[in-house]
Amino acid sequence: MLQPSEMIPARTSPVPAGLQRLLRESGIALALLLLIAVFSVLSPLFLTADNVSNIFTQIAINICLAVGMTFVVLIGGIDLSVGSLTALCAVVAGSILKLDSLSIGAAIALAVVASIALGAVCGLINGTVASYWGVPSFIVTLGMLYVARGAALQWTEARSIYEFPDLFNEFGTASVAGLPAPFLVALALVLLAWVVLTRTVFGRIIYAIGNNEEAVRLAGHDTFRYKILAYTICGAAVGVAAVLYMTRLTVASPILGVGFELNAIAAVVIGGTSLAGGRGSIIGTLLGACIIGVLANGLVLVEVGDFVRQMITGVVIILAVVLDTYRLKKAAR
């Protein structure tokens, strides 16, 4: 039986894959540094300790969502349900935190586990339907978007849940070595995903499926199982993001998460992961999320209007997709 490293990808390039990845990540890092330099000149408040800490806290949620999205995009899929699913996981976890029958420690532990488990189950459903019946992931996850949002509204009767235990809320404002605790959780998730994608057979097969799924299947691997696992991982990451959101804003609302899926996809694409699948990296995704966060924060500090901020963010996303398309065409030559 062929091993993943022996598979011949559908797209080849005279430049080694590792060097290509390094060049992409270097370019993204330079773009991020340039963005930081520009906003540092435009606003004296940008590089203050409080604002830097605020940026780290703000991007933590999007990093978690983008990490999960990366697994799905690498296999050539997409998940539009992560925003609504964040709301569903949050209200379920919030309801558990309000249970008087549990001690504070038990309620927090159960809420965290329930949020991650619920996200993973919904991701499992997305992956199963998309893989087993061959339904485009765009359609499946669009359906889950509405299901999750409706379920969140039904669960709470369209009411927000708040007044969580102080021990839970304090995590959202805690810091370690000057870094916000939510951001450290997001970094831990990035590290775990990096190990999985670069140091395991599972990770190599995820890349191989995005390049040539048929070759992976003919090599004797169950592509169905790996694709389902990719969506399940994405759902579990949503559960983590939901908990971080609750600790930061001390509320669980059934209408939260609107547009979260777009920010996550933007971070993945800006980070250099190809929408066609098979190419990209978690480090690139992290840098992409940082660019989104720095751009949003910097535009606020320089007093750019909300409508204009949306337009600028949209232009950046379009440019990232155009650049990705250009890279694909160049690699195919």
Automatic annotation (TrEMBL):
Signal peptide: none annotated. The keyword Magnesium does not apply. GO terms for cellular component: plasma membrane. The chain crosses the membrane at residues 28-49, 55-75, 103-125, 132-152, 172-197, 228-245, 251-270, 282-301, 307-326. Pfam families: BPD_transp_2. One of its GO terms (molecular function) is transmembrane transporter activity. InterPro entries: ABC_transp_permease (IPR001851). Keywords: Cell membrane, Membrane, Transmembrane, Transmembrane helix. It is found in: Cell membrane. It is a multi-pass membrane protein. It comes from the Bacteria. PANTHER family: ABC TRANSPORTER PERMEASE PROTEIN YPHD-RELATED-RELATED, RIBOSE IMPORT PERMEASE PROTEIN RBSC. This is ABC transporter permease.
